[in-house]
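S1.2 Input.
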Amino acid sequence: TGQDSQFNLYNNAVRESDTSASDGYTAKMESSDTSWNLQWTWGSAGFAGGESYDLWVRIKADHTVANPGGNAFRFGVWDNGSSTEIVPTTPVPASATQDMVYQDIRIGTFTPGVNQYVYVSGANNADISYVYVDKYWFVGKQTAQEAKLDLLGNAVKVTDGDASDGWSAKTQNNHNDWNIRWLWGNGLSFEPGLKYDLYATVKVDHVISGFTLPTGNAFKFGVWDNGSSTEIVPTTPVPVSISKDMVFRTYKIGTFVPETDQYAYIGGTNNAANVSDIYVDKFFFVPRGDNYLIAVNRNVFNSDTVTVSFPKTAVDKYGDGNVTANNVLTGNNITLSGTSTLSFSEILSPGGGIVVRLKSNRVSIP
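S1.3 Output.
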């Protein structure tokens, strides 16, 4: 997280007290200045190498009129190393902001680099006098290496040349415990209500005696919900026969809607005579993709219409079920008109977004 005390402030930008800000202070600039005055450079801030993150900003604008027009401010991300835009300069309409009320806006999704910085600038709009930034922050995506796992019992972190990051979580197979766990909490960026596939990359150490192949179960996995005390994915044993001796393989754990109180686990099967050790490289989520061959993701700041052309087919919105031509998803104002176009024209909330996934492999976006 980058608070205002960590910003680089330029030209007329200042830091001042603000009781509505998360730390009691904010960075303030005049809206008339279109320079990139409120910047945060994160450097080498402990990101997982190669992973993408969502970058957010908490921001508010001071309106000078009741119904401001034009743009309130702009934001973007620049890379000094490559002299390129990571997130292009993006204007936010004044009509999508509330007078002197902080709102959280997602700036973009990308892989953070040490030479990058995020910025906010004014829009030279007389309807907005000042722009205030409380903080910027990153939200990690849906992967957990062993450093993020809870290791219980005899589970330990070990160096591993086969693992994607050179380390793995290891447990002996002389127990039945769920002792390698990933509790993702609220630190990930999931689309609300959408199902994800959860996978784990695991290898096992076979015990081979003469010409006798190992038998029984190599390990087990599942997903538990602490909030409801229920199994989201029941405990599932993995037979030794579908594993390969000391070779990482990726196993699908299950498909479900992730919630903050859930955790995934890998456990032993008390079968050390056939599998001595279990190694976990990582867990990772993948948004459901078997029915969704293209996605339209739009940040919606004001009444906005997007038309997507596609053959007569079905559409799934946030798991609300299938709708066919001429049906309406009530509450979200998403309509199908005729047999070939889908349009939506209502914001969900200021700075909110709409995600539509089309069940077709022949989709074109004009």
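S1.4 Remarks. The two ends are 37 Å apart (CA to CA).
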